[in-house]
Design a protein that fits this description.
Two copies of one chain form a homodimer. Chain A is an alpha/beta fold and 315 residues long. Chain A has twelve helices and twelve strands. The interface between A and B is large, with 48 and 48 residues. Chain B binds a DNA duplex (30 and 30 nucleotides) through helix 2 and helix 4.
DNA sequence: AATAAAACTGTTATCGGTAACATTTATGTA
DNA sequence: TACATAAATGTTACCGATAACAGTTTTATT
């Protein structure tokens, strides 16, 4: 690999001039700049980022902290990582995946944190490197997320347009911000239509949705649609209805939230609020790098979700 | 952060002695070693890996190249990454996730490659850094994988023990090595029982399994078990049977392969050949690091799969 | 006790860059 | 023309570690 020195020699200038051409090009005459550019090209010069990191006292590492239990986690984290990695690679940063346990091993230049709980607020606020959260929070930490409220709000609207007369919300039984937002979107849409909201909450497991349906099947009238807070729950609801002999989408509608993987393998495919996780991951990375290089960059980035059409709502 | 120099001063020795205590402790007297250890502890010294990397001309980065299209990929890659990251973190290496496109951006010390196709052999052989493949191959590249053949062999055996009289193998329609191995395991078990193997192959999508069942339902006798090459296909088969009114596990058995995510969300849960991907990922990382530090380490690492009991086989 | 060999510790140069200061060259003004 | 000032380039020291060599102390041998 060619070094600064090699380029300098070939261009007949000092190392410093080459360094300047790269970092402060306006301080070098065009004449020399040309020489240097040419030498760089001829030698296929690429700066050594390790050396750079040493002088800057940086690591070029960004840690992605997944605070939830990864074993049981939704596959969408994969997409998140791909999105983040894409951006970081572009800027020659690398991504280190850490969990609660190995969180503080090794240094880094910044953090992306997801799956935070209330108790984590303390140590997160104490971090002395830039941080961005993935997933909305109400503690004032900058975050990237889908517009959760708009997602359920619009989905509920669509469901009504398709003629379903009863709407039931199946939520996730957790106190996280995103869940409140999704509920709020549903409630607002329902109330705007002079209906009374009906909500249930379960842990995020498909079989709980399935059980709910089979247990209460005789109380569930046809023409009901279930707006679920996750594809997992939607999948369970769908299966429950199928098992009880209900007809989807004619008599019953089901919608999910996520659109990463499960909605695709269900049958029929689930109509869902699709988050573009890869894109959000990229934005997350971009935002963090801006912070690291102290280009302002603060506040939240909120992505508008799209509705992905499956076969669980009638035309 | 304390540096070598700080430690040296406090211990009243030279930088070099401190460095030796860390890297060649047998060249230093116990007396000095004690002093240095104490100083290191008092100052909470951690070596600066960037500086180390600079002298060693290394990057402390390992690239994970996922050559398949990640968007549509199985969630088990997530587990793979977690496993790899776990090991790498322990050794203070970091993982860079790359795809076909951004493959050669930036330097690294070694590669873990998965999802390789035949056409990739050329450039992979040309890489000048240690490489380990995830997933078996027959080109002589070192790999880590599950014992695919043993997986289906043992699963077929179990199915026979449970009294199913007809075995049907549902494979993945691809020319990859792992698929051949899984087929071979099935065929061997069946032949050992003087039965004639029956195989079908589809692309790895659940709905194709479902279609197959619904189309051929009247030809399928009760007491048949389907040994599938993936949980995805198994899920489709299961759904097809349910839709046609067949009873699982009493009249029909279904088994999968993977055991990472889908087998859990299916209903009933799929009895499947479970690969411990996290563990395999760790081994993959360990192996690569050994290669990087040229501690021999060659050959393949083959993990024995376990059968994970779900509800798709009768007792 | 004198001297060679072995064991230990310190000094210097280096990895590939960059900041701060020093020097040279160009430009403007009286 | 002389001198102050600005602009362009070069020198040196440093980031935090390590290898290679130099110097010192200890131990062994005669």
């Amino acid at each position: 690999m060619a070094t600064l020195m090699d380029v300098a020699k070939r261009a007949n200038v000092s190392k410093m001039t080459v360094s300047r051409v790269i970092n402060h090009p306006d301080m070098v005459t065009n004449e020399l700049k040309q020489l240097v550019y040419q030498a760089m090209q001829e030698l296929d010069y690429h700066p050594n980022l390790i050396a750079k990191a040493l002088v800057n006292n940086s690591t070029r590492i960004v840690k992605l902290c997944i605070l939830e239990d990864i074993d049981t986690t939704e596959p969408y984290y994969m997409n998140l990582m791909v999105g983040i990695a894409k951006t970081l690679d572009l800027h020659q940063y690398s991504l280190q995946l850490v969990t609660r346990r190995n969180f503080d091993i090794g240094n880094c230049d910044g953090y992306i944190i997801t799956g935070m709980r209330k108790g984590d607020l303390d140590w997160i606020k104490k971090l002395d490197k830039p941080v961005i959260m993935f997933g909305e929070n109400r503690y004032g930490l900058d975050y990237v997320d889908t517009n959760n409220k708009a997602g359920t709000y619009r989905m509920a609207k669509l469901v009504l347009e398709r003629g379903y007369k009863h709407l039931v919300y199946i939520g996730i039984d957790s106190k996280e911000s995103f869940e409140y937002s999704r509920e709020a979107g549903f409630i607002q849409q329902v109330q705007e239509n002079q209906m009374i909201p009906e909500l249930y909450r379960f842990e995020n497991h498909s079989h709980l949705g399935e059980e709910f349906i089979t247990k209460h099947w005789d109380e569930i009238e046809p023409n009901t649609a279930f707006i679920c807070a996750s594809d997992r729950l939607a999948m369970g609801i769908e299966r429950g209805i199928a098992r009880c002999g209900g007809s989807i989408p004619n008599d019953y509608g089901v919608t999910g939230f996520d659109g990463v993987f499960l909605s695709q393998v269900a049958s029929p495919k689930i109509t869902t609020v699709k988050q573009s996780i890869i894109e959000m991951g990229s934005a997350c990375g971009e935002n963090l790098l801006d912070k690291i290089n102290s280009k302002s960059a603060q506040g939240n980035l909120i992505f508008e979700p799209k509705i992905s059409m499956g076969g669980t709502l009638r035309k």
